[in-house]
Fold this protein.
Amino acid sequence: MLFAARHKVIPHGGKSDDLVIYRANIEYQYNQNEEARMTALLATRSHLYFVFTLIIGSALVSNAAEPGGGSPQSTPFQLPALPYAMNQLEPYISSNTMSFHYGKHHQGYVDSLNKLTAGTEWAGQPLERIIVANAGATDKTAIFNSAAQVWNHTFFWNSMKPNGGGKPSGRILEMIDKSFGGLDQFKTAFTDAAVAQFGSGWVWLVQDGATLKVVRTSNADNPLAHGQTAILTCDVWEHAYYLDYQNRRKDFVTAFLDHLANWDFAATQLK
Ligand code: FE
């Protein structure tokens, strides 16, 4: 409408008098002012829309960064929730041990991993990728240890359940029978490996092709770093059992196998 009015007035080519010209100029000036005002208004609205879009966009990004929101950028690694209550593994593992082991040790590894990866290419990367990429690199020991210990402990919590132990069934039992000659033989191999591990480490049931094996690793090392598939694990660092068993590591591992081992979880790890 503004542009139509202007074009109607300016090309005034008829037999005009001063009044017509005067009114035409007034109308033209009005239209010019009105157009400038509307242009400014539209520019202001566009600016407000841009700012609004930025605010909404920032809010969405912020929400996505919340735990479980999918984006790991603001809080890269979180301590995973335990699959049971602190006291549910008693009397085999006390809630006192759990509060230190999960609340202090596992949390400590998460904290150190966040410090080591902040601002690096590893921030927010999957733990498995960090572990495999940094395994064996002498100048990457700190980041490997932190990432592996976060992963190992999460795997350990899932390797247990209240009223666990007992006898597995189905495919995993068939593979245990085939690989070890029976469940008792597997238990003996697992316990012997745990006792034989000098110093801190882990004992694992792993899958290597169609075969299951018992392996032990030192400190933070784990099967991922060696191309193996972890099926079940027991933490044999002293912090895992000393409050409840003192130096009796074998008793702790026996309790793990007989009363805590989560064969349902183990079966889900088979390839
Ligand atoms: Fe531990």
Summary: The radius of gyration is 34 Å. The first strand starts at residue 201 and ends at 208. The first helix runs from residue 2 to 9. The chain is about 55% helix and 10% strand.
